[in-house]
Structures are given as C-alpha cells and as structure tokens.
Amino acid sequence: MTISILFRQKGAGFSIEGVFGLLATYLRTQHAVTVCETHVPNMVIRPGALWQNLRVARRQRADVYHISGDVHYLALALPPRRTVLTIHDCISLDRERQRGNRWRYYALWLLFYYLPMHRVARITTVSDKSRRELIRHMGPLAERVTVIPNPCNPRFQPSPNVFNETNPTLLHIENGEHKNLARLALALQGIRCKLLIIGPLTPERAAQLAALGIVYEQRVNLTDEQMVAAYKACDMLVFVSLYEGFGLPVLEANATGRVVLTSAIDPLRDVAGEAALLVDPTSVAAIRAGVQRLMTDAALRQRLITAGYQNVVRYKAETVAAHYMAVYQSVIS
C-alpha cells in the first residue's frame, strides 16, 4: 500500500507536521507501507495560490491520499473514494462568525469544510470537542466523523528535575491570541519567575510584557530536539489557552515530567485527565492562583507529575498509527 500524506506549506506551523510526520515513521516501520509526504507551496487564500496547490495534489499517485489538516480543499483534486481528510478544529469558522464577517464565513464553510467533507471517503478529527464543533457547523454531514487523538512523540521522555520554588521557569506555547498570553502576563505580574515563550510575539504583546516587568525569553523555529530541550529547561507548563482542537503540549509536558497548569475547557480537560491543575482561562485571578499554588505545593506537583506519566500512555504513537492504518484499509476495501 502506498499512502500520500499532504501537508500545508512548509513553515506554516509545526503541530500538524509533527503529528503526521511521526505517524508516517510508524506506518513505515510497523505496517510495512510506503508513505510519501508532500507539502503544498502556498497558504494564502487567493485563486492563483489555491489552483497551484490543487495541481500539486492532482499530481500525486498513491493507493490512499490523506490530507493532514488546514488545506482541506485539496480533496477537490483527489480521488473521492480513496481520500481521507483530517480536520483538527473549527477555529477559522468560529473566528469569522464572532467578527460578524458573514461572507468570509460562508466562503470558508463552503471551500474548506462542506465541499471537502462531501467528497472524501473518510473524515477524522482529533477530539470529541472538535467533532461536536463540526456537527454544530456542518450538521448531519459531520455525523460520520471518526475521532482519532493525536499521539505524543516518544522523543519526550521522563527527565526529572528539582523544581525551582523561588524563581521557576514557566513554559508558554504561543501562536495566536487564543493562546491567552495577554491574561497570563497580567497574572504573572509581581511573581518572581521567568517566562519561556515558544513562538512569535506581536509588538503589542512584547510591549505588554515589558510594561508589566515580566522577565521572559523568546524562541522561534525550534527543531524537535530544541523543543524537547525547552520542556526539560522549564519547571512548569502554563497552557491556559482559550481554544484548542486537542492540546498536545499538555502530553509533552506530562511525558517530560513537568507539572501542568491548563484551562478548564474541552478538550484540554479530557486530554489532561487527572494530570494537570485546571483553571478558568478567562480569569486573571484564577490563572495567578494556579501558578502560585503549583509553585508552593510540592505534594500537588508530585501527584500531578506521577499522573502525567500514566496519562501519556493513552496516546502512544503506535496505537494512533494502528487506528489510522485501520482507516486506510477500510478505504482500500
């Protein structure tokens, strides 16, 4: 069997690429299939760029085609009965609806969701929460969506440390306003700590951090090895996002042996299970109280870290790869 996994433009992100790059490795080694990985050249939504991406997809030759996320419309250029589509979330639809941009909402709804979902053989998503969102936006069309969670990369291994109670390093993953750095910065004002930010910073957010006197270090475009090192270097993951399709950083911190503060929202509470302290991400006071509690309660930290090692077992890469392999085989048959 030959499987063609199609990705968005290189450099457009790292979460989808990390997940499906890992799965490709397991599919090759454990299921003896040929996996081809192809990135489309564009991310902009313009007719010429979309047409160029569709031509790249059309040139692929495989038994099964898998669109890994974001560029859902590639389904329009692929064989319907042999194509699998993974939809990670509906954040673009929610964003346009909240902005009141009706025409842009319907354009995205049609090109990125309705037409691709109608055309493909199988649809997967990464959490029950994302499936519920798809049903809310797409109606009965989304009833056939299968949930397959993201895997945790085995690069993340236990690396015990001595928690720095007087000046801890807090890890924050940043790639948009929904990651909630603005409230986190307010919550950390006056707390002695260092904020390690992975991802781009807007000038507005950098100015806020400076005005609040937050000591921080920013890193971008990290390799897999550098991401592992960042988790090892921190004392705590603070992942108080307002919106997630899954929440992979929670598992990466669990696997490393770092205590986690995250949002009391779906799907983060499902992914974290008993392995994180949950707080209201819309409350600066709740975030601040959560950070302070984890800084001072050693027994709680140890309980959450132990639970984290157990939690990550649910998301082994070989198990997730087997689920996708079953989907591919159902398409072939």
From TrEMBL:
GO MF term list: glycosyltransferase activity
Record's protein name: Glycosyl transferase group 1
EC number in record: 2.4.1.-
Residue intervals of the Glycosyltransferase subfamily 4-like N-terminal domain: 44-154
Xref: PANTHER family: GLYCOSYLTRANSFERASE WBBK-RELATED (PTHR46401)
Keyword terms: Glycosyltransferase, Transferase
Domain Glycosyl transferase family span(s) in chain numbering: 160-310
